Amino acid sequence: MTTFKSTPHTVRERMVIKLGGSTLEGLTEEFFKNFKKLQQQYDLIITHGGGPAINRTLEAQNITSYTVEGIRVTSEAAIDVVQSTLIGIVNPSLVHELTQAGITAVGLNGFDSQLLLADYLDEATYGFVGEVKQINTNLLDRLIEAGIVPVIACVATTTEGQALNINGDTVASEVALAVNAKSLLLVTDVDGIRIQEQYQDEVTPQMINAWIASEDIYGGMIPKVQGALTCLQAGIPTVQIVGAALTGTIIKSEGK
C-alpha cells in the first residue's frame, strides 16, 4: 500500500487596512497595485469611514454636526445620513474601484449577519454612537477562505436593529484584534512619520511622545499618531502609518 504525507495547510497572516477621509476619495493606481502585492503574502480586510462625504451631506441638509473628544456627536437625523452615505454611497463606490482593479471584494456593514454588534457608547453625550461588543468573525473567515476581500463600512447595529455610528479607527482596531491580525495599516495622505525631512522606517511610542513634546511631530500628524498608539495599546502587534505605496512607518512597542 502506498501512502502519501498530507501537506499541512498554511494559515496566512492577516492584515487590516483602514481607509479614511480624503485618502479614501483619492485612491491611486499605485494603491491598487501595491494592494495586490500585499495579497500575495496576507489575507486582507478593509475598513473605512467617509467623513468628507458625510460632512457634505450633513451640510446640504442643514444638519449640525460637531465632535466631542474626537467623536462625532450623532443625532437621529445625522445617523440617517451616516448610514445612507457610508452604506449606500461610499462602500459600493470603493468596492467598485477594487473590482475594476481586478480585486475580488464584497461590501459589508454591521447589519450583515450582525457583523458589528454594538451598544450605545454614551447616548446622552454622543447620541447614536456605539461601542463594538461583538464581531462576527465567522463571516469574515468564510469570505477570506473564498478569496474575497471584506470591505467594512463603519456602521454597527444594536441587537434591536438600530444603526450606530462608530469611529473609523475604533472599528479598524476592533476588527484587527478580533481576527488576530499581524498588523493594522492606517492609510493616510503622507508616506509615514517624517522627522526633520526624513521618513522614519520604525519607531516606538516613546519616540513618538518625545517628538510630539519637541514639536517635531505637529499639526495633522498628531491625531494620526495618537490613533495609532491607541490601536497599539489595544493589543495589535504593530500599527503602520502608510501612504499609497502601503509602506511607511512601523510603530511597535518596546521589546517587540
From TrEMBL:
Subcellular location: Cytoplasm
GO annotation (BP), single: L-arginine biosynthetic process via ornithine
GO cellular component: cytoplasm
Pathway: Amino-acid biosynthesis; L-arginine biosynthesis; N(2)-acetyl-L-ornithine from L-glutamate: step 2/4
Superkingdom of the source species: Bacteria
Chemical reaction(s) catalysed: N-acetyl-L-glutamate + ATP = N-acetyl-L-glutamyl 5-phosphate + ADP
Stated name of the protein: Acetylglutamate kinase
Role summary: Catalyzes the ATP-dependent phosphorylation of N-acetyl-L-glutamate.
HAMAP family: ArgB
Pfam families cross-referenced by the UniProt entry: AA_kinase
Provenance organism: Metalysinibacillus jejuensis
Primary localization class, coarse: cytoplasm
Residues covered by the Aspartate/glutamate/uridylate kinase domain: 14-239
Gene behind the chain: argB
EC numbers, comma separated: 2.7.2.8
Family: Belongs to the acetylglutamate kinase family. ArgB subfamily.
Any one GO molecular-function label of the UniProt entry: acetylglutamate kinase activity
